[in-house]
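re: the backbone from monday

yeah here it is again, tokenized this time
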């Protein structure tokens, strides 16, 4: 039996039965495995060149189940609509809930194995949340194949859908368990402290030994559930980090609580010696209080995501011919026509077909004023219809809606970690090692000087030096800042953005669609030649512009396009060309469309952009458009200057037009006639001069310059929001949240520095006092807990709009 127990499965660690023929080769040596499932999983891992998994993992793995499950149900169109989000490039994204994660090596194995599966474009695993964010090409790999691969590795995966239940369930469960542990610790602390005061008084004034033993025994009975249940997360976390070969902040916590409890149990059983039940339960209670407040702050930061999930209505009035029917939102598909009554929320994204009404978009965009929506206007899922009756044609539902896209951005931000947070965790791990060495040195000293005082002094050192405040300093501030900006209508899509945003000194704005509304209207057109009449020029322009993603293209949407466009070529930021009836036509900026032809008299009225239509012989027509400035563009740039920032304008429009806009915005540095490459070159030039640049622009058309900047802020709406990859996303019509973001980022940096400074000062002051034996363990517990609470409460100031 002993020999069998010593033979463990190479893959999962389970005992291998005597006579088992299952084995794999690793480093040229046969390794026993317990079953066919583990043999298949190990061969899969090794065949992909991922054998390092077995060298670095800590703990056992989950044996794969060879059930022959059919995963094809997840490849059906209904399942893809429910669980995945379709991107503009045809790729799909899905969130998976994983079970069976044991250590960092599991994360490494999953990410590397899935990336070797053809068609998987990106995968990121969050081991703390047990979730994976996956992007894949459905033309090369199916979702079922991904789930099958994970099952073959021994990990159970469940795709997550965007529902209110998914958004709220985890948070509610965490709150409930936290309150239960807090209640047990609080009641236990009150009882144990009552007995401790009596024991202290009895030691001074005299107490019968039998009563002393009884009170110690009762204290043991009360403290035991506190230590074994309420403090259980500290022991679990400490054990997990030790198995992973690192020192987490819960190692000294678990050591302190465990040592105080076990010492006290031993003293109670043998009938003499000091007991520290009061210190153990007090330490547990105050730690749980601090972490409950920190958890509440995280949930408050994520409450916007939960609120978004609850914005969908319970039922929808769908139009079916001449009649209507009440259906669940899940039954709606693109192309359906629905009626939205006053007081109802919009169930999906779509276009208004009839009716006029005011719509409240405040929870999505931060805009406090209702917006008037009429036929042709876009409606977003989750917005509230205030006055009239609207009929809408559905364009996007479920995971493809704007509401779901916002939720995914929030999830991505919560899953990411900025560099400063990683640095704080590394410092905390180093600090824990120093604390343990310090505790050993203090024990050695006091055992030589006064052995009776050795244990309480070491216990006080362990408690007082717990790096909770150090580890909470950064995440608490980031959570509060993220919640503050979400309420203002600016989504932080990557946590690193706040860290970088605090250091910027230049803010580069695109003009079209950023400083201006980007809703162009064709003001007038001028026909320049008799080679093409008025109707033909408009048709040619409409045909070419329909192939462009530039905002100007929308001005031609109502014009009947010419047929037969082929050989299309797009020059980003310059224009579009195509062949129609055998002739090559170009439309766009004059320098692009005319290819060196002489100027044809461009109109330079304020806020007008001129576009040229030309064939190989020369210009055919010019088109002039109007585009209004955003109402708060001027005040926002003025506030940026007040913060010491330099606002810049970059645009592909002619320099004269850009100069006109700049003159109305306080004369910021402005450059026109820039293509995408020129904008990127300008950003790189600024960076070489030592500047940190934040760029605000359209999430699609300005992708190159956004990617080149230190921080990118995209104007997000409709389909752009679903595919934007910027660091922050502006949801509303105002630019003021950009100013708020920079001010909040600077305040966040100050708060983090204050928190870290306080943690350092506290430890520098308290550690010598504890080492000298001047602090009792319960005093150390109180001081450490108050230090952590101060850090969290300081971070909560960021939730307010003031300084």
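seq for it, each position gets an aa:
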């Amino acid at each position: 039996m002993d020999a069998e127990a010593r033979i463990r499965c190479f893959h999962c660690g389970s005992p291998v039965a005597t006579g088992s023929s299952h084995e794999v080769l690793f480093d040229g040596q046969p390794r026993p495995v317990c079953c066919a499932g583990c043999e298949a999983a190990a061969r899969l891992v090794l065949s992909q060149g991922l054998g390092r998994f077995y060298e670095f993992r800590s703990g056992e793995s989950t044996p794969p189940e060879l059930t022959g499950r059919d995963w094809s149900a997840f490849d059906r169109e209904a399942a893809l609509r429910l669980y995945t989000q379709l991107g503009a490039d045809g790729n799909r994204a899905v969130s998976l809930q994983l079970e069976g994660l044991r250590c960092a090596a599991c994360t490494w194995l999953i990410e590397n194995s899935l990336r070797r599966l053809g068609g998987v474009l990106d995968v990121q695993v969050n081991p703390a949340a047990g979730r994976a964010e996956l992007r894949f090409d459905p033309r090369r790999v199916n979702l079922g194949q991904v789930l099958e691969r994970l099952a073959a590795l021994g990990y159970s995966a469940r795709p997550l859908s965007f529902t209110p239940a998914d958004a709220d369930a985890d948070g509610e469960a965490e709150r409930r368990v936290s309150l239960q542990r807090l209640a047990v610790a609080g009641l236990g602390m009150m009882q144990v402290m009552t007995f401790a005061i009596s024991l202290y008084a009895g030691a001074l004034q005299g107490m019968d030994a039998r009563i002393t033993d009884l009170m110690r025994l009762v204290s043991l009975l009360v403290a035991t559930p506190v230590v074994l249940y309420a403090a259980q997360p500290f022991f679990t976390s400490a054990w997990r980090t030790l198995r992973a070969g690192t020192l987490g902040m819960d190692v000294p916590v678990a050591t302190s609580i465990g040592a105080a409890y076990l010492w006290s149990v031993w003293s109670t059983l043998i009938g003499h010696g000091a007991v520290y039940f009061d210190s153990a339960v007090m330490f547990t209670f105050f730690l749980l209080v601090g972490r409950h407040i920190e958890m509440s702050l995280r949930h408050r930061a994520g409450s916007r995501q939960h609120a978004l999930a609850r914005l969908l209505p319970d039922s929808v009035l769908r139009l079916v011919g001449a009649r209507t029917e009440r259906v669940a939102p899940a039954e709606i598909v693109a192309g359906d026509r629905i009626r939205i009554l006053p007081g109802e929320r919009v169930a999906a994204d779509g276009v208004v077909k009839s009716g006029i009404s005011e719509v409240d978009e405040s929870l999505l965009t931060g805009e406090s004023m209702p917006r008037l929506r009429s036929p042709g206007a876009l409606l977003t899922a989750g917005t509230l219809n205030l006055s009239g009756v609207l009929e809408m044609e559905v364009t996007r539902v479920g995971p493809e809606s704007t509401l779901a896209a916002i939720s995914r951005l929030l999830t991505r931000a919560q899953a990411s970690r900025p560099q400063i947070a990683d640095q704080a965790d590394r410092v905390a791990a180093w600090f824990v090692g120093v604390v343990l060495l310090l505790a050993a040195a203090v024990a050695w000293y006091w055992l030589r000087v006064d052995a009776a005082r050795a244990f309480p002094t070491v216990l006080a050192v362990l408690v007082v030096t717990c790096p909770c405040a150090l580890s909470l300093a950064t995440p608490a501030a980031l959570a509060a800042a993220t919640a503050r900006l979400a309420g203002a209508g600016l989504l932080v899509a990557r946590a690193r953005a706040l860290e970088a945003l605090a250091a910027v000194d230049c803010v580069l704005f695109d003009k079209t669609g950023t400083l201006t509304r980007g809703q162009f209207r064709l003001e007038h057109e001028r026909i320049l030649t008799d080679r093409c009449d008025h109707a033909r020029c408009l048709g040619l322009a409409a045909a070419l512009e329909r192939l462009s993603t530039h905002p100007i293209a929308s001005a031609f949407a109502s014009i009947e396009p010419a047929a037969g466009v082929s050989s299309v070529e797009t020059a980003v930021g310059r224009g579009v060309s195509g062949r129609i009836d055998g002739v090559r036509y170009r439309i766009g900026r004059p320098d692009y469309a005319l290819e060196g032809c002489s100027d044809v008299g461009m109109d330079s009225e304020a806020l007008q952009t001129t576009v040229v239509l030309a064939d190989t012989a020369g210009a055919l027509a010019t088109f002039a458009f109007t585009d209004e400035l955003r109402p708060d563009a001027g005040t926002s740039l003025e506030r940026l200057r007040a913060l010491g920032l330099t606002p810049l304008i970059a645009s592909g429009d002619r320099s004269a037009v850009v100069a006109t806009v700049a003159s109305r915005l306080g004369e910021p540095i402005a450059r026109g006639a820039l293509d995408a490459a020129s904008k990127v070159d300008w950003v790189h030039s600024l960076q070489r001069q030592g500047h940190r640049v934040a760029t605000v622009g359209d999430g699609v058309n300005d992708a190159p310059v956004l990617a080149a900047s230190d921080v990118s802020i995209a104007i997000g709406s409709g389909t752009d929001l679903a595919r934007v990859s910027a660091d922050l996303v502006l949801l509303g019509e105002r630019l003021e949240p950009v100013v708020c973001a920079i001010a909040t980022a600077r305040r966040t940096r100050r708060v983090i520095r204050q928190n870290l400074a306080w943690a350092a000062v506290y430890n520098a002051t308290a550690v010598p006092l504890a080492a000298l034996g001047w602090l009792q363990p319960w005093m150390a517990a109180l001081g450490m807990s108050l230090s952590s609470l101060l850090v969290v409460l300081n971070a909560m100031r960021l939730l307010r709009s003031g300084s």
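DSSP finds 27 helices and 29 strands in the chain. The two ends are 68 Å apart (CA to CA).
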